[in-house]
Amino acid sequence: MADPELQLVERRIRSPDFPTPGVLFRDISPVLKDPASFRAAIGLLARHLKVTHGRIDYIAGLDSRGFLFGPSLAQELGLGCVLIRKRGKLPGPTVWASYALEYGKAELEIQKDALEPGQRVVVVDDLLATGGTMHAACELLGRLQAEVLECVSLVELTSLKGREKLAPVPFFSLLQYE
């Protein structure tokens, strides 16, 4: 029998034709709207991390929907949360990395003093598609000499093979869709 909490989260994921007909978009908005399914999602991710890792120092939330899951997951685990944002959005000295998009490129940054060398971090976002954003986040964390323990997301689009781009960093998702 499947986990009832996971079933609750899965029932809240919508798959509308968006942004064009024939493209199935995995919409997490109903999970956020429903306190029980959001709580279940955070609880499931937290339990996975507690079982899988000993010490975790921080959760790193990715701009922008990782900001919705990162702080809640960090609170559930009794940890702090650091932000990895689109370039130009953080004050103070930062480090940044570019990554490829389907059409063009994007850049992420983190504040230079966000972490100390050797701190153990888990990266969280709402969805893994091609892996470009998470890969860039791992690169940034590596520049700060942090240890990336794992990347996690609510949803994974398996056909885009994003987890392969993250190797050797482990990846975990609650829900997988082709």
Task: Note down, in words, how this protein is organized.
There is one protein chain. This protein has a 7-stranded mixed beta sheet with strand order 3-4-2-1-5-6-7, with helices on both faces. It is globular and about 40 Å long. The chain starts with a helix and ends with a strand. The mean pLDDT is 95. The chain has 178 residues and is of the alpha/beta class. It contains 6 helices and 7 strands; from the N terminus they run αααβαββββαβαβ. The chain has a domain at 54-176: Rossmann fold (3-Layer(aba) Sandwich), CATH 3.40.50.2020. It is found in: Cytoplasm. Its main location: cytoplasm. One of its GO terms (molecular function) is adenine binding.
